[in-house]
Amino acid sequence: MQGDAAQVKQRILVVGAGELGLAVLRGLAAHEGGTQADIAVLLRPATVSSQAPGKLAELDEIRALGVAVEPADVAAASVAELAAVFARYDTVIGCVGFAAGRGMQRKLTQAVLDAGVARYVPWQFGVDYDAIGRGSPQDGFDEQLDVRDMLRAQRRTEWIVISTGMFTSFLFEPAFGVVDLAGARVTALGSLDTAVTVTTPEDIGRLTAAIVLQRPRIANEVVYTAGDTLTYGELADLLERATGRRFERQVRSVPQLLADLAEAPDDNLRKYRAVFGLGRGVAWEVARTYNARNGIAVVGAEQWVRERLVAG
After folding, report:
1. What is the pLDDT, as a whole number, of residue 135?
2. Do the Cβ atoms of 163 and 128 come closer than 8 Å?
3. Distance in angstroms (rounded) separating the CA atoms of residues 291 and 212
4. CA dist., res. 185 & res. 177, Å (int)
5. pLDDT along the chain (312 residues), means of 10
6. E-assigned strands of 168-310?
7. What is the CA radius of gyration of the chain?
8. How far apart are CA 95 and CA 51, in angstroms?
9. Which of 159, 37, 165, 170 is nearest to 105 (CA)?
């Protein structure tokens, strides 16, 4: 496969530079194996030419990392046009998520396969879609299974799926409805004993770099990470330890979550709550993860709370 020899610099393209894409770029640039790679990021031409202060700062950081910019609009470009770009790279890492719209993950995967890219890390940074299966309350997950089917049905392009669980910050997002910090309340999804796995985007970036740059290389595997795996009851306990306050514990049962979704079937947050309430494919043992097996330190949920919600 291209770029597999240690003396050959592999060409890595990260698609997208949102919160996760930037974390992956930082991880690749900081990893000792990153010196053996030419790293680029695919950005929309409008982003590259933008004069908005935030975009300029983002571009300055990307260039300071030694990352080249590849302009292309994944939404507007055809599969053939994207394939022509991807063909210049040995490894493509997808960091464009659900916000890009339905069909985007299939489109990117098809472009990768048409280009004959040696290795692909699709945007699967989340739950275990195989375990959840098709027809879940979050119907957008079926496309993730389509991507896995596309990759498993061929042999030309190696692939790595990285299952990270929920972004740690999302668990504490007020709109998600699990943690009410001001009201000192935790609303468990399913039950207080239902578990959830979380990893911070920063750790996902570092771990993705380590996984992609590992020798001997990882190929055609689902790799798991976890900053923490905890039940909603344990979540309430850690919030009490970190804040010194008493937290009320409430439960939104699976039948209640499904009824909530039936009232507003297009509500994405209700879809997510129902999936996580069911508890299937959303949690795994930390001991079986890539970071645990390789002794890589990560940020646990309690540390995140103390540093992000309590400090200052």
Report:
1. 96
2. yes
3. 13
4. 10
5. 57 95 96 83 90 89 95 96 98 90 94 98 97 96 97 98 98 97 97 98 97 95 98 98 97 98 97 98 98 98 95 66
6. 179-180, 185-189, 195-199, 221-224, 228-231, 248-252
7. 20
8. 23
9. 159
Structure tokens at 227: 């900053």
Using a 10 angstrom Cβ sphere, with 0-12 exposed, 13-18 middle and 19 or more buried, the burial of residue 60 is: exposed
Tokens of 136: 């879940």
Token pair belonging to 102: 């339905």
3-state secondary structure of 103: coil
Q: What angle do CA 203, 94, 47 make, to 5 degrees?
A: 95
Read off the tokens for 252: 């939104």
- Two tokens at 11? 């060409």
* DSSP for residue 217: P
What is the SS3 assignment for 82? helix
